[in-house]
Amino acid sequence: MTTESPNTLPLQIGNEPLDMLHGILAEEICQYEAVSERLTRKSQVLAANKPKQLAQIDRELLALSRKATQLEQERQRTMTQIGCPNWSLTELIAHLPPQQARRFTQSRERLRQAVQNTAALNRDNRDLLDLSLKWIQETVEIIANALAPEGASYTAQGGKNTTHNPNQAASPLQSTISHSA
Q1: Which of 41, 67, 172, 179 is the most exposed place for a label (fewest CB within 10 A)?
Q2: For the chain, how long is the longest CA-to-CA vector?
Q3: Burial, 107: exposed, middle or buried (Cβ in 10 Å; 0-12, 13-18, 19+)?
Q4: What is the dihedral sign for C-alpha 39, 45, 49, 55?
Q5: 160-161 and 153-154: which strand pairing?
Q6: Taking the chain, what is the end-to-end CA distance rounded to the nearest angstrom?
Q7: Residue 104's closest CA among 20, 175, 172?
Q8: How many CB atoms lie within 10 A of CB 94?
Q9: Where would I find the H helices in the chain?
């Protein structure tokens, strides 16, 4: 076993491990682009309120995410085989011949873009879901208030407030029952 300084590649490294690494990167890019496409569809399905389609998309996203995780692990194993287990792609690229460095730089940039796009779509979908949950909570509160008998109100413990003063001006009915979605 040779000992390399932390910033140099092993002298015996050939094109095969680098080609294998580049292939893994290409597969990772495909996975993240597929995730982005599903997340875009998920946004549309959420907005259209189609739960059956949403369940299918979520199953597809889970499978794609598992595959992306496997590819990341495979990439780490390959980096270990190359002799730079703790390096980032940027560090590896800095030590490659110019032609290989260009190829890996392009792949790293595509992967970075795909991951950033996935993160942005996840944030958008989270915001859509948060708005939906807020709407559901407000709707449940409106329904609860509408179902309350006229003139009735409830205590903080959920019991009916029986103290009613007919000489008081009518106030808007408000349920104090806490609802959570």
Answers
A1: 172
A2: 95
A3: buried
A4: negative
A5: antiparallel
A6: 60
A7: 20
A8: 11
A9: 15-48, 51-82, 89-94, 98-147
